[in-house]
Amino acid sequence: MVDASIAPHYKNKWLTSATEISGRTWLGLFGIFLAVMASGIGENASKFALADIQGAMSLNLDTGSWLITCYVTGFVIGSGFTPCFWPTFSLRRVALLMCSIYLIGGLITPWLGEHYSILLAVRSLQGFAGGALPPMLMTVVLRFMPPLIKVLGLGAYGWVSAWSATFGATAAAFAFHWGWSGYFYWNLPLMAIATICIGYGLPQDPLRLERLKQFNWRGLLLGSCALAMLTIGISQGERLDWLNSSLIYILFIGGLGLLALFLINEWYHPLPFFNLQLLGKRNLSFSLITLGGVLLIMVSLVNITSGYLTVIQGYRQEQTSDMMLWVSLPQLITLPIVAIICNTPRVDCRWVLAISLILMATACLLASQLTPEWNGDNFRAISLLQAIAQPMAVIPLLMLATGGLLPTDGPFAAAWFNAVKGFAATAAGGAIALFNRQRTDFHSDIIADSFGSAHRATSQNSVDVLTQLATKQGHVLASADLYMLVSGLALLLIVLIFFMPTRIYPPRSVAAV
Questions:
Q1: What is the rounded distance in angstroms from the CA atom of residue 422 to the CA atom of residue 411?
Q2: Is residue 61 a contact partner of residue 106, using CB atoms and an 8 Å limit?
Q3: Interaxial angle between packed helices 116-144 and 410-454, expressed in degrees from 0 to 180 and rounded to the nearest 10
């Protein structure tokens, strides 16, 4: 059950803001958008620059990997649990607090190299703050933007994730010239500007501290621990050889057990973090399932391509980031076009989604034809297909997830959508790393065996050269296998469209009824 006392508060705010929006409120919306972009850029810049950061802080590969793991873990928890705080403390207050935490964390992180445990705690808090921001962007778009352009706002919410990931790689390449601390500092001015815009522009809702009497403390403890254990297990799984490590085994078993207890608690609690009853809405359930699949496809296309160019062609960081711009920059054109199309009442957004999945499957099938001679130029047409397909997937999914929901369901929809988004992206990265290693080893062993049969009496130098060739070709074949696997997933998701989602109309049509 959900506390019905928040209904009048959200209903009035939602309806009045749907038709009236001032320039000051627009500034607040821009501040949330800028904050999400700044946090995403910082997160991805640190991922791409991890080797430089480890060297500067005198961290080895094992200890350095926890910098990313702690941030991602905090991000997943923040994206899922902060929406429930908005009705109590107001979205504006929570947004300002999260921006402040991110700013302070970014400022002090480069000075904590000699205090490893504090460093990890700060990275976790910064990740929590960064994860709390995307649900806010989704909510302010739905709550404040006029119906005629609300679909465009939803598209901008989806685009900022892809853009921040791409620009994070580019930022890491530029920040290298400013010293390693630039990886943490350079996006902080953007966050400071965002904080000012949010503080000045977003309307201030009243405090509702009486809701703390029913606060879901048990759910917060169970859910945060479950997500933390599962996210850490996935993030560290490849490094520790997955279930061959007792730590990973305990994290997965414990995480799944706590997750089951958390879901039971959420079903009965009057103020849940995740309203399980909402999953009875077919469109929302379909959107969450498909979102996980689409994120796996998007992350796979980026990771497989960048991994191939780095290992096979020896691309440097700035070269791979330039390749990613072929995916994100064209979306400045394709996103508004797709938003206009989806905002047309005669267009069924389900078929826009189907076309996007077909384009993604086509991009994967084209990429699966790669050879050791392919370079960045060979991936440009594939990148353009991604640039067209991504907004065609994200905008319909957001429309299906949010259409037909009551104003009181807004925070719960934001929690579901962003928790799945954050966790699925982490799971996709872990799955791709695992399958890529397994398929590379499989193909390399077969090729090496064939070399051994043909060249029994060879020198040690020749053996080393042949081993390198086998590993290189094995990576190429593994990349092709992964592209084929991902294309199959895209086609499978198309099948779900025929059975699960129902027709949804753009907000303008609903407002006009």
A1: 16
A2: no
A3: 120
Q: Provide the 3-class DSSP secondary structure of residue 347.
A: coil
DSSP secondary structure code for residue 277 in this structure: G
* Position 406, amino acid: L
Specify the pTM: 0.87
Exposed/middle/buried for residue 3 (C-beta within 10 Å: 0-12, 13-18, 19+): middle
Q: Residue 134, Cβ neighbours under 10 Å: how many?
A: 26
Q: Report whether 421 contacts 79 (CB < 8 A).
A: yes
Instruction: State how far the Cα of 218 lies from the Cα of 196, in Å rounded to an integer.
Output: 35
Per-residue pLDDT of the chain (513 residues; tens, 9 = 90+): 444 444 444 343 433 344 457 788 899 999 998 898 888 877 776 777 777 778 778 888 888 889 989 999 999 999 888 888 888 898 999 999 999 999 999 899 888 878 889 999 999 999 999 989 988 888 888 788 877 777 777 777 777 766 665 666 666 566 556 666 777 787 888 899 999 999 999 988 888 888 888 889 999 999 999 999 999 999 999 899 898 899 999 999 999 999 999 999 999 988 888 888 888 888 989 999 998 999 889 888 888 998 899 889 888 766 777 777 788 788 888 888 888 898 888 999 999 999 999 999 999 999 999 999 998 889 999 999 998 998 899 889 988 888 777 767 777 888 888 888 888 888 888 889 899 999 998 998 888 777 665 555 455 556 667 777 888 889 999 999 999 999 999 999 999 999 889 888 887 543 333
In the three-class reduction of DSSP (H, G, I as helix; E, B as strand; rest coil), residue 259 is classed as helix
CB 113 within 8 Å of CB 53: no
Which residues are CB-neighbours of 8 under 8 A, at least 6 positions away? none
Within 13 A of 381's CA, how many CA atoms are on the CB side? 9
Cα 501 to Cα 297: distance, rounded to the nearest angstrom: 20
| Helix 7-19 / helix 116-144 crossing angle, nearest 10 deg | 60
